[in-house]
Specification:
By secondary structure, this protein is mainly α. The protein has one domain. The protein is 73% helix and 0% strand. It contains ten helices and no strands. Helix 7 packs antiparallel against helix 8. The protein is globular, with a radius of gyration of 16 Å. It starts with 5 loop residues before the first helix and ends with a helix.
C-alpha cells in the first residue's frame, strides 16, 4: 500500500516547473508569457540563452529521473513503477503548482527512461543525437526518439506495463508536438 504513495509524490515532483523557477532566479521573463509560451528548455533558451536552457533541461530531466529511480530502489513492482513513470511525466505536462499548464515533456520523458534503466536512457538519447546530427531539427529528433522508445523498452526490458506506459507517453508527446509536426510537414520547422 505504501508503494502506491510514490505515484502522487512522482506527480508532485513532476509538477515543479524548472523553466519558471530558472527564469525567476535568473531575473528573466516568465516563459509562459514570452516566446512560444511553453515552459520548457527550448523557450527558455529563446528568453535567456544556453545557460538558462541547460539548467532547465537538467531540472526537467531530474524530476522524471528521481522519482523513478527512487521507486526502483524501493523495489516496487512493474505496475507501480509504470504508474510512477506516467505520474512524473504528467506532472510536467499538467503541473498542479502552475495552473496545470506545463511543457511538452521531452526532457522529463528522457529522465524517466534513464530512471527505468541507464541503457534505455542512453539508447533514447543516442537516437535523439543521431537524428539531430542528420536533420538538425530538435523537434524531429525528439519525435523519432519518442516513437522508438516503446520498441526499445520491449527489447531491453520486455515488461508489458512499461511498454504500454511508453506507448502512451509517445502518443502524448506526438499530440503535444502537433504544431511542430505541421511545421515539419510544411517545411517551416527550424
Amino acid at each position: 500500500m505504501i508503494d502506491w504513495l510514490l505515484v502522487p509524490l512522482a506527480y508532485l515532483c513532476g509538477s515543479v516547473s524548472s523553466a519558471i523557477i530558472v527564469c525567476r532566479v535568473m531575473g528573466l521573463e516568465d516563459p509562459r508569457s514570452q516566446g512560444s509560451g511553453n515552459p520548457g528548455a527550448t523557450n527558455v533558451m529563446r528568453i535567456g540563452g544556453k545557460k538558462a536552457a541547460a539548467i532547465t533541461l537538467l531540472g526537467d530531466a531530474l524530476k522524471g529521473f528521481i522519482p523513478v529511480l527512487a521507486a526502483k530502489l524501493l523495489g516496487v513492482d512493474s505496475l507501480i513503477l509504470s504508474c510512477v513513470v506516467m505520474a512524473a511525466f504528467l506532472g510536467h505536462l499538467y503541473p498542479i503548482f502552475f495552473g496545470f499548464k506545463g511543457g511538452k515533456g521531452v526532457a522529463t520523458s528522457f529522465g524517466v527512461t534513464l530512471g527505468v534503466t541507464w541503457l534505455l536512457g542512453i539508447i533514447v538519447s543516442g537516437t535523439w543525437l543521431l537524428v539531430y546530427k542528420i536533420g538538425k531539427i530538435s523537434s524531429l529528433s525528439a519525435l523519432v526518439a519518442a516513437v522508438l522508445t516503446p520498441v526499445y523498452v520491449w527489447f531491453i526490458i520486455g515488461d508489458i506495463y512499461l511498454v504500454i506506459t511508453f506507448v502512451l507517453i509517445s502518443m502524448i508527446l506526438l499530440w503535444r508536438h502537433r504544431s511542430n509536426i505541421q511545421r515539419l510537414i510544411s517545411g517551416e520547422e527550424t
